[in-house]
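User: Working on a comparison across species. This one is Ig-like domain-containing protein from Muntiacus muntjak. Can you predict its structure so I can line it up against the others?
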Amino acid sequence: MSSSPGLVTVILLVLGQTHGNSVTQMDGQVTLSEGTSVTINCTYSTTGYPFLFWYVQYPGEGPQLLLKATKANEKGSHKGFEATYNTETTSFHLEKASAQESDSAVYYCALGDTVTETAGGAEHKL
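Assistant: Here's the predicted structure for Ig-like domain-containing protein from Muntiacus muntjak:
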């Protein structure tokens, strides 16, 4: 992926659902200036209380866990990113106050069903 110096690129692709549970992110690619705040939306649909995850995949590398939350209202944070498990809005939005060029990557929102032990996810590229 190529980008101009000082710019951060975000890309998203919805991947589907598993056993009636699903995760949805906004579609498309977003390019923003360094130092700008960024929010990557993620909502989920499930009958229970799943574990929620954000994975990041940097160019030329495999996906790696960025952060997770395993219970309602828990906030996960790592490398300046944070996401709060919000059961009222069924959301787990990923936020960073000041995006850097080094944050350019693909971001995946995923859920793990604690009952059936299945997983589903959606992808977002920053």
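For your comparison, note: The two ends are 11 Å apart (CA to CA).

User: Helpful, thanks.
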